[in-house]
Design a protein that fits this description.
The protein is α+β, with helices and mostly antiparallel strands. Helices cover 34% and strands 19% of the residues. The chain has 17 helices and 19 strands. The strands form 4 sheets. Strands 12, 13, 14, 15, 16, 17, 18 and 19 form an 8-stranded antiparallel beta sheet that branches. Strand 8 and strand 9 form a beta hairpin. It is globular. The protein starts with 11 loop residues before the first helix and ends in a 25-residue tail after the last helix. The protein binds D-malate and zinc ion.
Length: 502
Amino acid sequence: MRQHPTFPRPSASAIDKARRLLERALGPSKVITSADGCAAYGSDESDQPPVSPDAVVLASSAADIEKAVRAASEAEVPVVPRAAGSGKSGGAVPVGGGIVIATIGMNSIKEISREEQIAVVEPGVILADLHAAVEAEGLFYPPDPNSLKMCALGGNIAENAAGPRAFKYGATREYVLGLDAILIDGTRLRTGRRTVKGVTGYDVTALLVGSEGTLAITTEATLRLIAKPPSVMTLLCLFPDVRASGRAVSALVAAGVVPRCLELLDRPTLDAVRARGVGVDERAGAMLIIEVDGEPADCEVQAERVGEVCMDAGALDVLVAQDEAQRERLWEARRQLSPTTRAMARYKISEDVVVPRDKIPALLDEVAEISAATGVRMLTYGHAGDGNLHVNLLWNDPDLVPQVETALSRLFRAVIGMRGTLSGEHGIGTSKADFLALEQSPELIAIERKIKAVFDPKGLLNPHKIFPRRTLEAAERGDRDGGAERAPGFPTHVVAPSHGAC
Ligand code: MLT
Ligand code: ZN
């Protein structure tokens, strides 16, 4: 287990007060305070160790959320919004204790308008349910994180989630026209618009999307939809090694081909897929999954061009999925990569770095070098089309942690050196917070802290996310609390470290 920093928790009297206020405002049926009940809301899909909250509110309306944040503000305890809890950077882990507000019960698709091409949804709607509902109307909501069968719109909006189709269609932010949201003091905001165009005032909607639940809690979102592409073709391109597949990605981008998905799997990832019983040509040391969409004739032309470029880049073979069932099997294997690789070792970290597309071969070389130098097993797959690769670090021996820390910091430094970015879709959360200063200047971080303080002056809404808790040097040394900052926005009623239960 890596050394994670410790975080302050509210005092016992603040917790008692919060629980009393919550039960009075919401009634006991919507408030969980038992240790077992709270423990179920202590983790997400990141490597952040679970931390039980002190209370959980099962919100079924915006009014419930408003009551809950008012109680939390009065008692001065932290609030952590949570939709499906499928996040990968610790965003929904209540590291500083306090109250989790669970919005998964707010799962109504309130409107789908074919005329306006919009949908209005609550934060607990499961993404796959939204996909099915809009596609039944001939419409399309492109964002497709691979957890789409279990992740919810509230979390997608908080993290600005993306997925394979982001290559052509962009991430969640491109599709959020407006939000209804609640601030930590109970103020209700309606941001943005229902119209396709609009530039009135600051773009607060864009600011809230991707703010990782640190500025406001979404209660309703108005989403832009597009027409469902009439036809889709999925290609499987096999390469002898990952360098050849990296070259093909650069060549496809340079050739101006815009498939909707361009996914890369390296050799260790392919081996993991094979180990699950999926037959992949033994000669293949890397694979690209490429999907094109549009009118059927247009798909044929695009697919042909993709095939040519891949063969020129050294592909062994280019196969086309023959029917919907084959396509679905292929994508299911791709979507399962995260759990599949999770099962390969006792500990796993999945990074989601992004580099300029022409640097993909260099990044893959760097990963191989880091792995060889540190002895940490690494495998890479992901959204190569937009330069966003999931570099996974796997290990079993807890004594290997210092090497894992070295590997991570070398990876992050290499990515920033290539003018890349630390996170393409999972967010900073707690897992990368201490590395923020690698990418952003002190001046920019100071502005971001001021924005946080405008929305949340007492630092109660999802504290300890995004902003560093330790100095960069301490984080790179793996020093748990070294150089801890007491930055603006940190609650001051500290009584105990938070690695405990309720
Ligand atoms: C994915 O692309 O599969 C997801 O972002 C999760 C991950 O593998 O890290
Ligand atoms: Zn991904």
